[in-house]
Predict the 3D structure of the following.
Amino acid sequence: MANFDEIAFLDATTQAELVRNKEIAPAELVEAAIERIERLNPSLNAVITPMYDQARQRATGPIPVGPFSGVPFLMKDIIAFCEGVRMAMGTPLLCGFVPDHDSELTLRFKKAGLIALGKTNTPEFGLLPTTEPVAFGPTRNPWDTERTTGGSSGGSAAAVASGMVPMAHANDGGGSIRIPASCCGVFGLKPTRARNPLGPDFGDILSGLVCEHAVTRSVRDSAALLDATAGPDIGDPYCAPLPRRPFLEEVGADPGRLRIALSSDFPFGRPPHEDCMTAIKETAALCESLGHVVEEAAPSMTRNSAEETGAFIAIWAAGCAATVDTIAAIGNITPTEQMFEPLTFAIYQQGREISASRYLRAVTTLQRLTRDMARFFADYDVMLTPVLAEPPVPLGTFDAPKDNPMKAWERVVAFAPYTALFNATGQPAMSVPLFWNKDGLPIGSHFVGRFGDEPTLFRLAAQLEQARPWASRRPRVFA
């Protein structure tokens, strides 16, 4: 058989074809992936909870017939439960928490034929755009191990970028799929709100800010996986509009002549790093060369009014407080500063001070924002912005000073001012790895579609992938 380090950089669709054609056995794929994780993880710290015994058992037993039968996979260590496997969510408080059931999304991953090898690292409660929890240590970027992977799906993105697995579970409440996809040079789509289920434990999270999906090596993997997992679960409070045909059929389909709004607005008044501006200008030029119309345009709300920004932060902080208080109630403990990272505890305290009235006003503000954005997209098919205001920053950039932990939050906002808006509006959005700077660091391009319109994004992404392929790019140290 071919070299397993070469197979490691094939996408999940191709790996599944090898299994279907009996050119390789699932157990061989699993053992090769485990060997690669064991070899690379000491340098990257992407995987924090191995599931090797379960994976080996699944690989040698009957595997459900699905689009990815026998393909190795990793689960992010937050939100989606795996029966009998610890879920720590980046905090020492939960290191002993072992769910007694699978989440619906986990079941759908299994039904698709995927074999989970372990759980990936995440910041404490997924709060930061970097993956450096005190509980488990930092995940390191495969392109430069002194730099961030982004967050909160940084462990998953580092694992895919380094070839541990071809795709991995991820979720996004303020950019947590797109930010690490940008930092690690992989494809990351945040689906439309409620496209994937959160049950049975959650109806929605943070009033609809959080979405589930994955980071992948290829566009077609993302589309095929979404076909396998999308759709409402029993009792869901709402669901996304149903697609007219499978998402995989959009990959390679003609996107037509799209009207793309290029936003050069500077959220919070700070222009992005010149590398990020260069990336977005090159992306705009590439889109024009493919026949699309690109024009500078942005809705007024992208300038981040104090009211809209405050509304998002209120919901985010209240969500943190609710999470901590739930854990405290279950464990019969009183939360103290010593139990959490400084920024987590500061956000928790802020969240506890938010009244029910203020919370509901914040929800109303973001719902108004959603309607304003929908009016803007009546004239445009897609919006293009940077994913981040900077290339991947050095590890430690977001360390919180103990005397004023919220200073770290100011640094967070400066680094990632673009993505959270579209969690608020619920629109699908993606980071596409089209640019690497002179230091060899990936910088993603951020495309946003209309609510419910993943098809247009998949068509465009596949066209861009063909025009400027990224599959052959590999982190030099870990290739």
